[in-house]
Here is the input.
Amino acid sequence: MQHQIKKIEVLVADKSNYTRLVLEDILSSEPDIQVSAHASDGDQLISILLKQKSDVVIVDYDLPLNNQNLTLKRIFSEAPTPVILLIPKELITLALVAEVNELGVYAIIAKPGHGDYTNYRSVAAEVISKVRAVKGTLIWDVQNRLEMQQLVMQTSKPVLPKRYKIAETVFVIGASTGGTKAIESIVSNLAPDLNATILIAVHLPQSFTRTFAKRLQEITAWRVKEGRSGLMLKPSKIIVAPGNRNMIVHAVMGDPNNIRIGFSDELTGFDQPNIDLLMQSVAASKVKNVVGILLTGMGKDGALGAARIRERGGYIVAQNEETSAIFGIAKAAIDTGVTNEVLPLAEIPHFINNYKAQHLSVSEADEKV
Here is the structure.
């Protein structure tokens, strides 16, 4: 029995009917891609996204009702979907790339002149590759941003890239059964201003994580967001991994000061959002201090990620058995010998509020080698 290929669903949003038809012609020629909808302005685009899911949106930078990037902001807040942005080549600058990058735009394509069918055909391979890259890893996306930076340097007056301030310490909290109540207990007792980001991965369905993030926002002064591509690791920020997706972090254009949220397509069974993948990606980053915290829950997800954090000089805390609803995830880490401390739930917020790095940061260690 032959399995049917699951096609990548693309929504094309451009004010030009000609451009929409050319892009549909290019994409529909591929067996694994189909254009599921068109939009001619920002309102129509948002309306479609709220009614039907798309894997990726190709958006014209000059789309009507996108003044001051309003449509892009609405996509990421109302109907989070990876965005590939079409920008006229003459408008591309490092400042503009940095601006849309911070909003969360996945990739950029230099848009050919209006009505130039030949030039559209010349970028066909790039369009197709970037659409497929949304379903793959972030490696291609980083390469694309490097290429776009080179394009800017060739076509416009250089603009100094924006410097990004990322948190000094990243806490990665992983949990499963009973985890939401435990995390609420921790978050409600956080000090208001810490130079830290908290990343949370709990095995939850997609329909629940946004509500959970809103609930956390009600009980803390920290900014709480459900994870989406492009979010920065800023101080006093909590990012909750969306359900049924594996959230990770990555450095944009290789810049260790510009570490952002991304997603992996690696299959991890029922353990999604996956704690191991998130911890491993943070451990591999150049964040100064990394702390893993494993709470209540079934299974052993997080033990491998905790080991990677310890290997890079990080710190691991596990919730004790007495305060765990199910002593599985924390126990697996304890049994492998990677934990630095085992604490009752009530003491974990105090630990976070008073944490002082006890090991060299990655950058400091590298300098001394």
In short: The longest strand covers residues 33-39.
